[in-house]
Amino acid sequence: MTRKQRRLTMIGGALVVLAIAIALVLNALRDSIVFFSTPQMVAEKHIPAGKRFRLGGLVEPGSLKRGDHMMVTFKIADGSNALSVAYKGILPDLFREGQGVVAEGSLDGAGVFKADTVLAKHDETYMPKDVADALKKQGHWKDDYEKAGKKPDTATKPMQGASR
Amino acid sequence: MIAEAGHYALVLALALALIQSTVPMIGARLRDPALMNVARSTALAQLLFVGLSFGALIALNVMSDFSVANVYENSHSMKPLIYKITGVWGNHEGSMLLWVSILALFGGLVAVFGNNLPLSLRANALGVQGWISTAFYLFILLTSNPFLRLANPPLEGRDLNPVLQDPGLAVHPPMLYLGYVGFSISFSFAIAALIEGRIDAAWARWVRPWTLMAWMFLTLGIAMGSYWAYYELGWGGWWFWDPVENASLMPWLAGTALLHSAVVMEKRNALKVWTVLLAILTFSLSLLGTFLVRSGVLTSVHAFATDPTRGVFILLILCVFIGGSLSLYAWRASSLKQGGLFAPISREGALVLNNLLLTTACATVFIGTLYPLGLEVLTGERISVGAPFFNLTFAPLFVPLLLALPFGPLLAWKRGDIAGAAQRLYAAGIVALVSIAVLWAWVRGGSAFAPLAIGLALFVIVGALTDIAERSMLFRMPLSISLRRARGLPRASWGTMFAHVGVGVALIGIVCETTWNTELISTLKPGDVAKVAGYELKLDDISQRQGPNFGEMLAHFTVSEGGKVIGTMTPSKRSFTTRAMSTTEAALMSRGVSQLYISLGDTAASGAIAVRIYHKPMVLLIWFGPLLMAFGGLLSLSDRRLRVGAPKPAKASRSLQPAE
Q1: A157/B95: higher pLDDT
Q2: Which of B389, B414, B579 should we substitute to test contact with A (largest number of A Cβ atoms within 10 Å)?
Q3: pTM assigned to the model
C-alpha cells in the first residue's frame, strides 16, 4: 500500500466514524434534551401536559405539605407566579423552604407539575440564574445571594438530588 | 506574618517562573548551555517557593487564623485536624494554589529526572512550563489571593461545606490535579518539539512515562470522585454526566488516546504529527476543565456575569494557550518528518482506530457539555443535557472500541493478520457467547441489553488474558516453561493486560448495577423490618450523638439473610450548626462485590423515619476496574523505567553535552 492509499483509507475511516458520531449527536439532541422553565415562563408559554422540562425557582415558604406514603407537595415560585409540584420520595438534604430548587418532570392534566427528580444545589446559597434574574427585576434581590455566588464551590460535588 | 510570607513566596515564585519562561528558551536559540541550564535551577527554586507558600496556607488553616479571609470563610476552630488540612483545597483559592503547586512539582521532577534529555529539549519544555505557571501565578495573585487579610478579624470561622468534610476530599482533588496538571508535561514537550522542529522516537519514549503517570492519577482521581459521590450524596448514583464530571472525563479520554498513539510513535516512529496534536488537545481539555469548574460559569452563570474577572482571566489563559499552541502546530507541524508506513490491518491500524473512537467519544462529551452553555449565551434558552444524551452518543461509540480492543495486542506491527487474531480469540468469543446465552436464559426474555453488554465485557477480559496466554505459550508447552515465559514477558505487556481487563471489569459493574439494582423507599418505625433482595433489615432504634462540629442522628439496623444475622448498619444524618446544613451519611455493607446501601430521609412527626435502601449487585466492580487500569499503568511505568533508565550510568557525561 502506498502512503497515499494508506492516508486515504485512514481519512475515509475517520470520516465514517465522524459521520456516525454526528448522526448520533443530532439524533440525541433532538430527543433527549430537557428545557428549563420558571413558573412565569410556564404561565406564559403554555407547555403541553406530559412534556418533560425542568422547573426552577424558590420553594414558597409555608407551601410544603407531606402526605402519606412519602408524597410531598410544595410550590415553586419565582416572585410573580407559583406552580404546585407533587413528588414522591425523599427530598435532598438541602431542600428547604425559601431556597432555590430545580425539579424535573412534566405537567399533568390539572396543571400540577409531577416531578420525578428534585435537585438542590450543594451550596446553601445557590440560586438558579433565572430565578436570580427574575427576583432582581422585581427588587427582591438580597445582597447575600450575590456575595455567595461569587465563590463557586469546589469542583467535586455538583448537585445533590433525589429521584424516585 | 505567615500569610504575608506565603504571599511573598508566591510572588517570588512568579518572578522565577518569568525567568524560567524566557532565559532557557533564549539559551536554546543561542545554543548556550549555561543559559539553558537556568531552567533546571529555576524549576527547582520555583518548587521550593510554591511549596513554602502552600505550606503557609496549611499552617494558617491548622492554626485557625481567622484574620485571613480564606481561612475565615472555609474553616472553623472545632473542625477536626484532617479537615483543617484538606480544607485548604476545598475552596477556590486554595485549590488553585494546589494546582500551581502540582505544576511546580512536575516541573521540578522534569528538572531532576531530565538529565538524560537533550539539553535544548529540556530547556524549551521547562520554558513552556514556565509560561503556564506564570499565567496561573498571575491568576492567583490578581484575582484569587488566598492570603488576603480581613480588617476586623472575626473570632470564629464559617466552617467548611459539610459535604466536603470527608476523607474523600483528602484524596480526590490532589489525585485529579496530579492527572490534570500532569498532562502539562506532554503539552510542554509537544510545544518544545514544535519549536525545535524535530521529533523522534526518543521524544515519545520521554513523554510516555509522564503521560502514563498523569493518566494513572486521573483514572484514580475520577474513580475516587465517583465513589465519593456514591456514598456521600446519599442516593446511590455514581456518575451523573454533570459538566463538572465531564470536565475530568474529557482529558481522560484524550489522554487515553495519547497514551496509545505515543506507543505507535515510540515503537514505529509513526503518527508523530497526530501525537503532538493529541498532547496539545489533552492539556487544552485539562485547561478547559479548570475553566469550567473554576470560573463559576457552571455553578452559576450569574456569578460569572456579575464578577467576570476570574472567569475572563481563565478564559484568556485558555485562549492564549490553546490558540497559541494550535497556531504553532498549524505553522510548524509540516516540518515534522513523516514516519513509517503501515497497513490498515496492523497494530498501528488498531491503535489508530482506538484513537479515532476515543477522540470522537471525547468530542460527543465536549458537545454535550458545552452545547447548553453556548445555547444560553446565544439564545438565552436554558436546557439541560443529561444522561439520555450521553447514553445515545457516548455508549454506541464505545461498543466498536470494546469489540476491537482484544484484537489490537494480537495484531503484528506494520502488517497484521486479522484472521489469525480472530482465530486466537476463539476462546474469548466462545466465553462471551456462552455467557450471553446463559444470562439470557436466566433473565428469561428480559432486556437483551444487559446479557449482550456483559458478553462484550467478558470478551474484552478473556481477550486480554488471551494475549498473555499466547505469548507465554500456555497449554502448548509444559506449565513450568509457560510460567517462566510469562515471567519473562515485558512488564508493559502485563500492564496492557491489567488495564484492558480493568475496562471489562468496570463495564460488568456498570451494567449489573444499572440493570439489577433494587431500590426500596419507605418509612420505618423502630422495630419495623424492610426486605430488599433477600436481605431483612430491621430498624432497632434511633439515637443521637454529638460530633466535634455537628450533631448526628443515627439509625441502627440489624441485617439478616435467611434468618441469620450478618451484621449491623448505622446510617446517619449530620447537622452542622455553623452553616445550618445537614448531610446524609449512608451506611454501606459489602457482600462480595455487591453492596447494601441505606440512607436516611426526614423524620416524620410520628417518629417514623424515611429510609432509602438499595441493593447494588456487583457495584464495587465499577471502581475495581479503574484500580486495575491504574495498576496496569504502574506496571507499564516500572517497565519503562527499567529500559529508559539505561542511560543512567552515562548521566554525568551526557548532561554536560550541548544539544546536537
Answers
A1: B95
A2: B389
A3: 0.89
